[in-house]
């Protein structure tokens, strides 16, 4: 069963996203001048309309593959076919969009960036706001002859504004957010003392006059007088002030005093604080003023204060930095409107996941994902969030994560990679992707992730660590995937990008992991993919092969990867003539004697030559070395290999080897192919015996035994391979029957 909060998407959510991504195929049609129009037989209730608009804004803001639709908001302009009640619009909204929906919206939140406008209005209250002298432009859109009154307002103005004049025409206010607003004459707020249920004064310079006004608001249920930090604050929170707030505001259920310096001692002695199990009962509170509460608070913000460290806090949910629970509460409470605080809290979560152990993994991941989505353009959030994700998705926590949750992580990581070319974000994102099973877990975003990684690798001079991780990911992504995927990635410029990296390393005379991974990636992407092999040759890949061989004669891993790649090229008959030059044949022949990486370099060089020899003596256009001389060297090399050698190679198909068996034009090629099968089914029978049977290899081995041209040594190996495969598969079948019977 999925954990709470990690259930599959509802049918409503799935249908909403599908409709938004396919508007013209579902609820809309194309009208005159390509205008997006709602179908005439469609009527959408408020629940669906609100969901469509809010999810649309979320997709535009967080999904890079989703394109905004011109005219989308005009679909909701007619109250006869649509109903809107509660919307959350972001800074992407345009004036004409608000104009389209103004007639019927019930509750609207318009956010223009972190430092400007947020306003919420409630309509159909019998008062006009047309006389408001200083209202911002967005509010002027509602200054039409409609009965409208604002019950919640956040002017959010950083410049000096006459807030008193701005708000006076709004007697019906019940919620007011004055975050960051300068209040030289706070007494005017008293006009709402019998109405206000919520007052937010975040980052407002407090004064005795303002506090005395606030404590008159007896109906307040939520009060926020918190600060971002303690710097530049002349106001000190005293025990007397806190007691006054608690005693005067008896209806409070939520209080935030984060970021304040406590002037005098508000807490009980340490020995008393340490007594008993943690309690939320007000009478047992470790903070003296809160002993006056009638009941525990639902929420208490103590972030960046010393008060969060005490034992007995009379609140169900507390923000702070004492433990994981408080940190997660802080991320949850501050992500949407206070990214500067959320950034600090995510950084603390990062330390918990890295040094200690995260006990609320699901919640932690969901909160970090939400923060990264909400603040896609906030560099500090992206840096800390991506770093936290790296530790929250590592092996220690893997078993606790569903497929759906891990996909959400991948999506926000890719969002960060798209938005930021900054080194730290890119490194964190790439490292996080390394925590996933590749390519399996990334396949649902296969095209996108490959494009992003290739983009990272484009610059001539890239951060060394990012380059290394990105090349490793590229290599893993093209390993063990089908040919369609490889061809698609090849068309993105994969081959050219890898060769550019190799060229750069050659210029620096450096054979490091980037060099070796790049050749390995080319080996993987050219496997049974002729188009990519052709690209390799067209991009002067053979010249780079020769240069690397000359510059790094002792790099065994490098030689193995390069020869593996050339084996793939040699399997393509149409490309083999490009390998048939005196220079290349001499190089391949010399590599037959190589002892690098066990038998791998010699084996791969012999494989390249086996395919070339398979085309027969008529196509051999090389005078030096002679064909017979090369074949003799191949026989000698094969005879020197230990047939029990464990291999550093992985075959998905035997087809390129099997085609060399039933022929007499090149006995040495047949011998190499038979040795390869002999070795693989002997050392790895469970993997390769079934593959040999599946691909018809047993019948082809029988043909080898029938051919007069087959050499005795070849027939011996073919006979053993045939018998061993038959015995293994028969034994496996018997075991399966026994298990079934039991």
Automatic annotation (TrEMBL):
Gene Ontology cellular-component annotations: Cul2-RING ubiquitin ligase complex
Stretches assigned to the Protein zer-1 homolog-like C-terminal domain: 372-720
Naturally occurring in which organism (per UniProt): Astyanax mexicanus (Blind cave fish)
Domain of life: Eukaryota
Family: Belongs to the zyg-11 family.
Keyword list, A-Z: Leucine-rich repeat, Repeat, Ubl conjugation pathway
Stated name of the protein: Protein zer-1 homolog
Record-annotated Zer-1-like leucine-rich repeats region domain positions: 165-305
InterPro entries: ARM-like, ARM-type_fold, Armadillo, LRR_dom_sf, LRR_Zer-1, ZER1-like_C, Zyg-11_UBL_adapter
Database matches in Gene3D superfamilies: Leucine-rich Repeat Variant (1.25.10.10), Ribonuclease Inhibitor (3.80.10.10)
